[in-house]
Amino acid sequence: MYANAQTVRPASARFVPLKRGHALTSRFGHDTNDCGAERRGTEAAASRLAPPRALVLGFGNVLLSDDGAGIRLVERLRSELGADAAQFVDGGTLSFSLLPYLEATHSMLVADAADLDREPGAIGLFEGAEMDEFLKIPRRRSVHEVGLVDLLDMARLLSCLPDRRALLCIQPGRIDWCETLSDPVAKVMPEASRKARATLERWMLA
After folding, report:
1. Confidence (pTM)
2. Widest CA span of the chain, in angstroms?
3. pLDDT (tens digit, 9 = 90+) per residue, 85-106?
4. Collapsing DSSP states into helix, strand and coil, what is residue 66?
């Protein structure tokens, strides 16, 4: 899954399903078969209403230690910024079911654990075209990273890919059945949060 992470799944481990694809705030986008039409309707209303909030989307499984770093970061950002500062969504390991969230915004920050081929706890921030290029690099990908690629491809086809988008990745050090982050990843969470907040604040001023 990750080049620099230890992947261990004990034979006696029992999988506990989680509810995924839910927002950490109370708003939930409705289903649609035409993201482009919905985006145009949203844009028409924007002249009368406040701009749509940025989407802060976390991927991963919190039962697998550092694999859940993206989810932990989204939870931290929601606590630090307040629930109304953005649309905070726990994407789990899902993909296409998250399209309604993309259609409702022009700004999307994705947080995830990813193989950066660096030391555990290393942070990578890729924005715009850099994000697109990073996701094209041939390397080991997690299941949810593959899902993110599929989600963005579908958004492009339906003309609802957010204009402003960024991917904040953290190199995992441990992928194991554990509900806590490894020490190297836990230590960089404040720095990752600062980088994420700076990006969101810059988008708000643009």
Report:
1. 0.76
2. 57
3. 999 999 876 767 899 999 999 9
4. helix
Q: Which residue has the tokens 């145009």?
A: 40
Say whether 55 sits in a helix, a strand or coil. Answer: strand
DSSP string for 87-100: EEEEEET--GGGHH
Using alpha carbons only, give the angle 80, 29, 42 rounded to the nearest 5 degrees.
100
In angstroms, the CA 128 to CA 87 distance is 19
Give the chain's end-to-end CA distance (angstroms, integer).
Answer: 37
| 8 A C-beta contact, residue 47 and residue 40 | no
pLDDT confidence tier of residue 52, bands split at 50, 70 and 90: confident
State both tokens at 153.
């491809």
CATH class of domain segment(s) 18-205: alpha beta
